[in-house]
């Protein structure tokens, strides 16, 4: 019985230690998420404005720019998957990897060859473990993304898109990342980055009328200047969205782990008390039995 008590005490101590760790990680994630959300709110209007500007040039001009015109025969499609460098975030990484692989399978069914660009150690580890090839990898900058990472990713994507499938590049680009919706919800998002499709409308102002545009010096030069900025801003916004979603997922997972640790502590405490009570009862019974034996022997 004493051995059983020691086991319960060890399990209670282990659960209490785990709770301290998960509670600390929950507080760290909560402190980081506010900054991440502020960065998302700051970058989203600029990314939307640049997208609208590029779309406007493509829509209201007669220039057939190679980055805005869909190619007749799309052979290869780039799939950029944004994960995190660290785990302990629930289904954050698994759901975005599943979303990216489902998109790749859909592209294969359409007769396109998907090629992968990976962001985050979790995506890199997943592909390496399954011996799946990737064109490029970026790690170490997912918790608090920096703009130079977005510039590197954008440069690699733009280079592949410019070369085209005939020269080992790609004919279209898709981004797959977790979008921050709320503290409890992180939604997988698929965005076709290039080629552009339509001007993005503002849902808050459905009756707004967009004017006709004039471009100086001409639309092609404007597109050449805007498109690198457009790709960088969209990639950076995806990095920030993924970072904020990861911190929210970590906070939610660590809170769940702390609650489970509390439940384990309660359960093991009850079992320890029952074992202790049974041990005391047994000791009393042994004392009473011994006293009876001594009394009957006189």
UniProtKB/TrEMBL annotation:
Q: Provide the GO biological process annotations.
A: proton motive force-driven plasma membrane ATP synthesis
Query: CDD domains under this entry?
Result: F1-ATPase_gamma (cd12151)
**Where mainly located?**
membrane
Coiled coil regions, renumbered to chain: 254-281
What stretches pass through the bilayer?
none
- Provide the topology term for how it sits in the membrane: Peripheral membrane protein
> Which terms in the GO cellular component ontology are assigned?
plasma membrane; proton-transporting ATP synthase complex
Keyword terms:
ATP synthesis, Cell membrane, CF(1), Coiled coil, Hydrogen ion transport, Ion transport, Membrane, Transport
Q: Which compartments is it annotated to reside in? A: Cell membrane; Membrane
Q: Which InterPro entries match?
A: ATP_synth_F1_ATPase_gsu, ATP_synth_F1_gsu
Query: What GO molecular-function term can you cite, just one?
Result: ATP binding
Q: Which family does it belong to?
A: Belongs to the ATPase gamma chain family.
Its assembly, as annotated, is:
F-type ATPases have 2 components, CF(1) - the catalytic core - and CF(0) - the membrane proton channel. CF(1) has five subunits: alpha(3), beta(3), gamma(1), delta(1), epsilon(1). CF(0) has three main subunits: a, b and c.
The record describes the protein's role as: Produces ATP from ADP in the presence of a proton gradient across the membrane. The gamma chain is believed to be important in regulating ATPase activity and the flow of protons through the CF(0) complex.
- Tell me the protein's name: ATP synthase gamma chain
Protein source organism: Microbacterium aurantiacum
């Amino acid at each position: 019985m004493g051995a059983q008590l020691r086991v319960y005490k060890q399990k209670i101590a282990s659960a209490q230690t785990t709770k301290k760790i998960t509670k600390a990680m929950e507080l760290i994630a909560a402190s980081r998420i506010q900054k991440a959300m502020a960065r998302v709110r700051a970058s989203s209007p600029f990314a939307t404005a640049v997208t609208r500007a590029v779309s406007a040039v493509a829509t209201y001009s007669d220039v057939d720019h190679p980055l805005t015109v869909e190619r007749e025969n799309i052979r290869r499609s780039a799939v950029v998957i944004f994960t995190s460098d660290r785990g302990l975030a629930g289904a954050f990484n698994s759901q975005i990897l599943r979303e990216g692989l489902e998109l790749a399978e859909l592209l294969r069914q359409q007769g396109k060859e998907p090629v992968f660009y990976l962001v985050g150690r979790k995506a890199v580890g997943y592909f390496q473990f399954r011996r799946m090839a990737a064109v490029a990898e970026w790690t170490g900058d997912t918790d608090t993304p920096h703009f130079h990472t977005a510039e590197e990713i954008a440069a690699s994507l733009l280079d592949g898109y410019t070369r085209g499938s005939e020269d080992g590049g790609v004919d279209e680009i898709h981004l797959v990342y977790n979008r921050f919706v709320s503290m409890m919800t992180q939604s997988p998002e698929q965005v076709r980055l290039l080629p552009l499709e339509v001007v993005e409308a503002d849902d808050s102002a459905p009756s707004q009328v967009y004017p006709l545009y004039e471009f100086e010096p001409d639309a092609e030069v404007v597109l050449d200047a805007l498109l690198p900025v457009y790709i960088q801003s969209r990639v950076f916004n995806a990095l920030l969205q993924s970072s904020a979603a990861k911190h929210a997922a970590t906070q939610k997972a660590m809170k769940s782990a702390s609650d489970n640790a509390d439940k384990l502590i309660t359960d093991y405490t009850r079992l320890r008390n029952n074992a202790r009570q049974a041990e005391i009862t047994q000791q009393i019974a042994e004392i009473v039995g011994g006293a009876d034996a001594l009394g009957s022997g006189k």
